[in-house]
Amino acid sequence: MYAYPFSSSPFAVFYNADVLAKAGAADPAELVADGAWTWDALAEAAKKVTDAKAARFGLVIHEFEYKQWDRLYPIMGAYGAAPWTPDDACGFSDPKMTDAIDFLRSMAFTDRSTPAPGEQADFFSGESAMVIFQVSKIGPLADVNWKWGTVPLPSGPAGDRQVIGQAGLGVFAKGRNLDLAKEFFLYSTNTENAAKLARFFPPPRASLLTAETLAETNPLLSKDQLQEVIVDSLKSGTVRPGHTGYAQLSEQTRAGLDAAWKPKADTRKVLRDLCTSIQPILRTGS
After folding, report:
1. Cα separation, 78 vs 74, whole angstroms
2. How far is CA 169 from CA 94, 164, 188, 205, 284, in A?
């Protein structure tokens, strides 16, 4: 199946500069400038926030809540891990994946710097110093009364690994009203309407994917931020992996990961068992 990626939205870190300053933590933008923006640096800053009680938590992963496990792709990618390979082999048993999951577990259960299962925090109301989400979700920042900033995802053991989420628009060949569907597809993706969509979603058209063009419809971000967080990330990033049996695969993975979200879990065993569970789905695609 092929589709036009009308939205290609990178994941990024948004932060409350006032909270980080109150906790004595380094500003992520300064760490980026110094070449020191790593996941370990993020975890250190998050712990300082919690220790100083400058906010409830140092980091929130938007929409994760130990249910939507695919929101962990930024951490997985930073460790060079992937849930499965292009040839449908399970990747959860890879030691790199164990390291990635244990990184989050350490923040949740040891540092207490990110919500543990059953806990929640809202970045926009100041309950967390940092949040990981896609650029297309920043609208509420227009109403906050504190200083904020944004930077690309940190680098990890596998280097700089930016992650992109995509949404596509396509026409089913066996659908009803095929001619009308084609007409709508062409209309909604033409140059004029692609520019309108760029206000909400980073565009796929190279002519629109410039900081100058994006600035016309994204007043919350500076041109430098747009260049660094959107344009550059789209050039170097990778799209979250999909699969023909994704719906069943995702639910089975969520259930299998439940055992990892306990303080004394054996992460390696949990992930090996998960591979045993999902490998048949990976092979058949359903």
Report:
1. 6
2. 34, 16, 9, 14, 25
pTM flag (> 0.85):
yes
Return the SS3 of 95.
Answer: helix
Q: Which domains does the chain have, with CATH numbers?
A: 4-164+240-281 (3.40.190.10), 168-223 (no CATH)
Question: What is residue 92's three-state secondary structure?
Answer: coil
What's the burial of 277, exposed, middle or buried (CB within 10 Å: 0-12/13-18/19+)?
Answer: middle
User: What single-letter amino acid sits at 200?
Assistant: F
Please enumerate in sequence order all residues whose Cβ is within 8 A of that of 77, keeping only pairs 6 or more positions apart, or say none.
Answer: 156, 158, 161, 163, 238
Assign 44 to helix, strand or coil.
Answer: helix
Note the pLDDT tens digit of each residue in 88-147.
999 999 999 999 999 999 999 999 999 999 999 999 999 999 999 988 788 899 999 999
